[in-house]
Amino acid sequence: MLQKTPKTTPSRYANQRMHYDEAIVFPILDEALFCTISYSVDNQPFSIPTAFVRKENKLYIHGSVGSHFLRQIESGIPVCISVMLTDALVVAKSAFHHSVNYRSVVIFSNAQRIDDYEAKASFFKELTEKIVPNSWEYLRPMKSKEVDKTMLLVFDISEASAKTREGMPSDDEEDQSLPIWSGLIPIPSKRLTPIPDELSVNIPLPSHLSN
Amino acid sequence: MLQKTPKTTPSRYANQRMHYDEAIVFPILDEALFCTISYSVDNQPFSIPTAFVRKENKLYIHGSVGSHFLRQIESGIPVCISVMLTDALVVAKSAFHHSVNYRSVVIFSNAQRIDDYEAKASFFKELTEKIVPNSWEYLRPMKSKEVDKTMLLVFDISEASAKTREGMPSDDEEDQSLPIWSGLIPIPSKRLTPIPDELSVNIPLPSHLSN
């Protein structure tokens, strides 16, 4: 179970929509490709979207060693990491009850920098396999100077929670017999057919990309 | 032109990928349904995803008058609003040059609360029409108590910028002749066929939802 603290307890829907169970939180993190990381300098918040990998109870991000953003947060200042998957628009009979079906996670944590070469190289493989499954062995192998140019940061996933909405609209009782259509419009993120660049027009699409 | 300030000038790709022109920033805001709003209390950042509407150079969000989040930011403390549309996974011949085609916006601003009834009612119409175009007139009309229960906040869009990546992978010159497929995997968010709830199985799908 994750830590339920004042920071991870919302003011509304605290019972129906909140989850502190890794079995709910981790699959959301594994399905989402991007998170938004927020940090604050003199109470001025900054937010950056970035790709990430979850492994056990840790979340990993990377970037250039020259990145201002990474240099700010590697000192271990408090960060808030948020992730949202949007599943459907919830179309009610009244505008007021329109909503969204979503699965979101918020993590409060602090960065730690990882300098170990093998850990960095292994992160690259895990990130690549998360974004394009089964592609790692097919690609040109990583070079050590590429690993060296990259900063890897890790965050504990401990003070964290998920918030989700699922199911149909909740219209007011007196509206339920109105002849107004209500239901869901699914809005999944879909992967479409790959488009080759000009160097690849004569290269067969590998099987890991054709499924 | 939007304000280019130290906060809206990144450490990397400051020339190629940054945009301060409303003609680039506003369409991204109009296409995105959700933003992430970050604020900070005693240097502890918090982030909340929420729906929004842009109108001229203002961004509007709403929520329950009981929302802890809205009550925190309505005082006018600094917020950072971020939006990201992900268009494609950029698959290079090496893992190192994998990337993402995206269109993102960051806005630094402060909330102002709007209590005017007509302004709040008109926001509801604009938000509903943004999320489900041409649906407002079809729905059960808004009730005044619904407007009263809702808090509306507005932010100036002035210190703001867009960051985008588009186009094909940028592989190293020595990799360009490798027989490894490279290109794009488009990952648009698609609206699928609406699914009626049990109150609506015998109600015809209105034309604004069937396109």
UniProtKB/TrEMBL annotation, chains A, B:
InterPro entries: Pyridox_Oxase-rel, Split_barrel_FMN-bd. It comes from the Bacteria. Pfam families: Pyridox_ox_2. PANTHER family: 5-NITROIMIDAZOLE ANTIBIOTICS RESISTANCE PROTEIN, NIMA-FAMILY-RELATED PROTEIN-RELATED, FLAVIN-NUCLEOTIDE-BINDING PROTEIN. This is Nitroimidazol reductase NimA-like FMN-containing flavoprotein (Pyridoxamine 5'-phosphate oxidase superfamily). It comes from Arcicella aurantiaca.
